[in-house]
Specification:
With 81 residues, the protein is an alpha+beta fold. It has one domain. Helix content is 52%, strand content 17%. It is built from 4 helices and 3 strands. Strands 1-2-3 form a 3-stranded antiparallel sheet, with helices on one face. The longest helix is centred in the last third of the chain and has 15 residues. The protein is globular. The protein starts with a helix and ends with a helix.
């Protein structure tokens, strides 16, 4: 589901459970607000993704909700360093 590079980044932060619920809960622990949008078929084809996660002025496009939560979580954790 996740590329090896992302798995290594998660491991650096001690994140081992890469399920959708676990990643969402971890994101909610580090981020006050976010919006996850499941895209309709035509924008999904146009942008080549199925989900868009928006946090502040940052957007993450992903193929699954878990991937969107994970990318958002890594973005938040990366900013805190």
């Amino acid at each position: 589901m996740f590329a090896e590079e992302l798995r290594l980044q998660f491991a650096q932060y001690g994140i081992t459970d890469l399920g959708e619920v676990a990643l969402r809960e971890a994101l909610e622990a580090h981020c006050e607000t976010y919006t996850l949008i499941k895209l309709a078929p035509w924008p999904a084809r146009r942008w080549k993704c199925h989900y868009r996660l928006m946090m502040g002025d940052t957007m993450y496009d992903a193929q699954s909700a878990a991937e969107a939560y994970g990318m958002g979580l890594l973005g938040v954790l990366g900013k805190r360093e």
